[in-house]
Amino acid sequence: MNGLMQQQQLLISSLLTHAERHHGDQQIVSRRVEGDVHRYAFRDLVARSRRAANAMTALGARFGDRVATLAWNGYRHMELYYAVCGMGAVIHTMNPRLHPDQVVWIADHAEDQVLCFDMTFLPLVEAIAGRVKTIKHFVAMTSREHMPASSKIPNLLCYEDLLDAASDRFDWPVFDENTASCLCYTSGTTGNPKGVLYSHRSTVLHTYAAALPDSLNCSARDTILPVVPMFHVNAWSLPYIACMVGAKMVFPGPHLDGKSLHDLFESEGVTLSAGVPTVWQALLAHMEANGLKFSTMRRTVIGGSACPPAMMKAFQERYDVQVLHAWGMTELSPLGTACTLKAKQVELPREERYAIQAKQGRVVFGVDMKIVDPDGKELPRDGKASGELLVRGPWIISEYFKGEGGQPLVDGWFPTGDVATIDTDGFMQITDRSKDVIKSGGEWIGSIDLENIAMAHPAVAMAACIGARHPKWDERPLLVVVKKPGAELTRDALIAFYEGKIAKWWTPDDVVFVDAIPLGATGKMQKNKLREQFKDHRLPTA
Ligand code: ADP
């Protein structure tokens, strides 16, 4: 017997309709590429999204076609999120920090029809315009007065002109909720980038789950500033969550330095933010140097790489901002786990609470996870056994776009490539990415633990731990460190800092000081580059 409930397709356009009806006057504030601050209300977002849908239709974009963006976090990008998905086309958010060759490869692979871009990326678009095979229209996301006088791009269109010429009446079509909505490519550190194609259903379900109190904890009383870019897995769903819960949105545009961010947090009363650890480092350094505080910020989501406990402490103890450590992947839309305490843990001694918070957290309902040994046998959830992390659920990939990379699932589970433990309370902790794990004498050493300890040293700005070749042990940990400006630190002092904090044989064999650690397109440390750079490093223990 079936239940007698209504069958309604879960569509992204329904988020927009909801926001218009119930949060029409809520604000969206954007620092623009043009330099000024723009503000309007959700009802303006909805009206302009309808115009944008008409404009894209007029350019020939049809159901299922890909419309690409190269854009910062801002209201025009948000309009395109909703307009393109709402009309049944697919928004393809490209990462502008990629090499032009990669952008061409991705645009061709996605068969993008239209490319909308922020003016910052004009040189990039000029570099690729003559090379991409399928893009018919290039749209500069700006107004007439900011259009370049001349450009190497044939028939360059102006976004505001297109919207002015379009009607603000558009009936969002109703279609199957499994229709594709959004396409994101993974960074492709190994092999070609792979496309992850979300559906309306997966996006709406993920949005519900991500907004929950023990997930990102978002409400109509929040002012949310996503530092995480809208080209990095949908800014972790925050532009969708904003419409679902009616939160005020604040977009930083291209201005991501510590000062610009802090100014915006203060002037707009931001309560919640989100980003990768490297962004927060710059903000914290700026605040420390200038003796600044937050007046309204209460929570920040940190994920994308492990959040060093020293950063957590700085946020919580010095600035009264609660850190929400979260783990996810492009293939997971992205949210998998978030770290919030259970009732019985709230009163634990401070250091015990920090030890829990350093974990990546508990699964959000909808995500099922397990760890397995190299033979695929499930390992116990005892907080000790560590193995490859596998996940499944309705917002987790089933296969990559165009079948790239073959069939990714193993018995219906997606292997994440992360190595983790799961404790009896269900808290998952990543010890490493499988390709970053250091294999010393047949045993694994988790690089994240070693980096976290280094980051707790007051003279360390950034630390990466990689496996260096060793004649006896195969690999031994080598610590690559960027010192804070003006700080004094020696190799021996840093190695001594590990004493008593970790099993003795995990202690790094050597430390090298560098000016900078290479960061990838989403702000993560590129350990593959470091491994290449230090492949001939001679350890003193060798
Ligand atoms: P990529 O970095 O490969 O482009 P993603 O942005 O999807 O792709 O990154 C996913 C990976 O980032 C995860 O598999 C994991 O290794 C790492 N990651 C994400 N969040 C965390 C976290 N909180 N702690 C440690 N690692 C994390």
TrEMBL record:
Keyword field contains Transmembrane: no
Recorded GO MF terms: ligase activity
Example GO biological process: fatty acid metabolic process
Coiled-coil stretches noted in the UniProt entry, renumbered to this chain: none
One Pfam family of this chain: AMP-binding
Domain AMP-dependent synthetase/ligase stretches: 18-401
Record-annotated AMP-binding enzyme C-terminal domain positions: 450-524
UniProt record similarity statement: Belongs to the ATP-dependent AMP-binding enzyme family.
Name of the featured protein: Long-chain fatty acid--CoA ligase
Species annotation: Ramlibacter tataouinensis
